[in-house]
């Protein structure tokens, strides 16, 4: 017997542990070399683990196990050739059961198996993959298939005798316990680290977005015609922040022990909400990008993040973060730092509010801005000045466009 041991490979510099999220092949099944046998969930991405040889698959780890790099996942018995399981002969005295409809010739390991992003969606919706017909290559269940799928209706509970002391027995006392995903555990650990390991404070200001909204209304159609993408608020806010960050390097710096690291570039991490948690991939050299390039970068990263296809390199870095709670209706918040960065800008909901302009009360589209910062690197006066400068650029976007 020749046994090949399958161990967790080295995935990235900062990844020391993964979770075996699901097996893609049955135990005892014959697998071909390079066929994915399981999926790993790391801090930043979901990865398929291919077989290193052909043979019979023998499980060692179980779904949900946390495995260190180099840990044993499975064994492959290469002495087994061809199909691992042979059909048992039917007893002679028993009439043969009707034959099941043969699977298509194209059926293989991918048939009926969901992609990583599809698997996550189905787990969250409570959909059994066996009830979903895959439209992908070789019958693979795609993200679109998972989004269309609906969980099976729960069987009606047996009628219980009425309780005379309770008028309505529709409420439940059920509980359930689920293991946190690796990404959620990583997010939790980093948030606690940032909260406990930095001298974090938040300063606030408000910005009148009348000029920006007028600018977008006037030029949006021409912008889309030329660049194929809409001019959104994020590119304008990113560019304004990048402009001020180049003037105020302290806000763009990070702390490493007793040393402050300054950057002569601005890589802005954009917070993106996904079904498994918040990710913050950076857009590099925002100070040198045009508005349409920023919008295209944000759209591409958001699509990859929600599809679960962000690479480790796309998740690394960042000198400053912008998070927009306004898309969920947040009026005000105190965002938590994205270590090792020293500052994060929180955008919020745009509300029509009365404000005093030149002695008169007028209605304007207003947004509260919040800057959380590490007081070990950034002084209070610096944080206030940063927000004021960003506010001025956004309220007079012509100066931003003309680099004045």
Question: Care to describe what's here?
Answer:
- The protein has about 400 residues and is α+β, with helices and mostly antiparallel strands.
- The protein folds into 3 domains: about 80 residues, RNA polymerase II/Efflux pump adaptor protein, barrel-sandwich hybrid domain (OB fold (Dihydrolipoamide Acetyltransferase, E2P)), CATH 2.40.50.100; about 45 residues, Dihydrolipoamide Transferase; about 200 residues, Chloramphenicol acetyltransferase-like domain (Chloramphenicol Acetyltransferase).
- The protein has 9 helices and 19 strands.
- Strands 9, 12, 15, 16, 17, 18 and 19 form a 7-stranded mixed β-sheet that branches.
- β10 and β11 form a beta hairpin.
- About 5% of the residues have low confidence.
What's the gist of this structure?
With 404 residues, this protein is α+β, with helices and mostly antiparallel strands. The protein is built from 9 helices and 19 strands.
Properties at a glance:
single chain; 404 residues; alpha+beta; OB fold (Dihydrolipoamide Acetyltransferase, E2P); Dihydrolipoamide Transferase; Chloramphenicol Acetyltransferase; 3 domains; 7-stranded mixed beta sheet; elongated
CATH homologous superfamily label of the largest domain: Chloramphenicol acetyltransferase-like domain
**Tally of individual helices:** 9
First-last Cα distance:
75 Å
CATH fold-type name of the largest domain? Chloramphenicol Acetyltransferase
What low-confidence regions span 5 or more consecutive residues with pLDDT below 50?
Answer: 84-105
Mean pLDDT: 82
Q: Helix content range of the residues, please?
A: 25-40%
Strand content bin: 15-25%
Radius of gyration: 27 Å
Global shape: elongated
Query: What CATH architecture label of the largest domain applies?
Result: 2-Layer Sandwich
Q: What is the H/E order? A: EEEEEEEEHHHEHHEEEEEEHHEEEEHH
CATH top level class name of the largest domain: Alpha Beta
Beta-strand segment tally: 19
How is the main sheet built? 7 strands, mixed
Structural class: alpha+beta
Tally of structural domains: 3
